[in-house]
Design a protein that fits this description.
alpha+beta; 5 helices; 3-stranded antiparallel β-sheet; 17% strand
Length: 169
Amino acid sequence: MVRENVFAPDAKDFSACLELLGYRTIALGFNSADFTSQNRQRQFIVGCPDERIAAAFQRALLDTADDIGINSPCSEEKKVLAACLTAHPCRMAAEDNYCFESEIKRLRILSPEECERLQGFPVDWTAGFSSNRRRIMLGNAVTVPIIKWIAERIKETINESNENRTDGL
């Protein structure tokens, strides 16, 4: 089980509820800037019903060598090109997702296709909807490369745990 959200105080309550149900939880913090050109900090809570696999998953995260994730230094060389995409009506409207074009010194609203790329979706993934609806959907979406990275670690951990089983199952 994986939950993605902004860093929020209810994460402790969410983890406590999962633990009451028998899950072991691991909280991860990521910024989409480690994967795309968007500054989008989010918290991921991973719940696992198997204590042994959860411990192996946590070790795999700590041992990762691809320089992203919970122990990675934020690269000074990486240049974030876009602010966090949003669909929250009280902060900015979805059409306010913008970038600054320094060569002509102006702000420009991001196209839905640019928003798709910033979230890691294929171009035209949301085609068929209005531009405003597409921006709202993408502002509410998870950053696909982060989910893919977490899912790959989960899959590797489960595969290794199954290969190392000695109980005959």
